[in-house]
Amino acid sequence: DTNPATPETSALPDFRALIDYANHYFSTVPPIGWRTDRGRGLRQYGKPDNVEAKQYNPEAKPYAKWNYYGLQGGIEFCFVELGSIEDFKLVHSTARNEIRETQWYERYAQILGSATFHR
């Protein structure tokens, strides 16, 4: 909002809604939802255009892929549940200046051996 007379920017209510969404759906003990990797993704990039979530698969840990079609020519974020339940960590992204691990599925999600998360 370029008008200095406006008390708050027009984007602030949308940002607060994303924080509330993250706190409701992504909270673990600890951290609260907006401080998780998925919460940071929401804060920085907004809600994804598409979410593919794999929760129950005997061959892989739970994971989620988020797609943003209109950002940077199309970007993807991959999160894997590596620690406690619902504690999804960002293990790969095609976005600029984000973690990139093209073998993320084999390294972190696939259940064949022990996967160790290094960041």
Notes on the protein architecture:
24% of the residues lie in helices and 20% in strands. By secondary structure, it is of the alpha+beta class. Strands 1-2-3-4 form a four-stranded antiparallel sheet. The chain is globular. The mean pLDDT is 86.
In whole angstroms, how far apart are the ends? Answer: 37 Å
Shape: globular
Q: What is the β-strand count?
A: 4
What's the average pLDDT? 86
Radius of gyration: 16 Å
- Please state the structural category: alpha+beta
Q: How many individual helices?
A: 3
Q: Largest beta sheet: what is the strand line-up?
A: 1-2-3-4
Uncertain segments: none
Largest beta sheet, briefly? 4 strands, antiparallel
In what range is the share of β-strand residues? 15-25%
The proportion of residues forming helix, as a percent range, comes to 10-25%
Written as H for each helix and E for each strand, in order along the chain, the element string is HHEEEEH
Topology at a glance:
Blueprint (H helix, E strand, L loop, with lengths): L11 H14 L11 H9 L4 E5 L8 E6 L6 E7 L6 E6 L10 H6 L10
Antiparallel strand pairs: 1-2, 2-3, 3-4
Helix pairs in contact: 1-2
From the structure above, extract its key features.
single chain, 119 residues, alpha+beta
What would you say about this model in short?
Helices cover 24% and strands 20% of the residues. The chain is built from three helices and four strands; from the N terminus they run ααββββα.
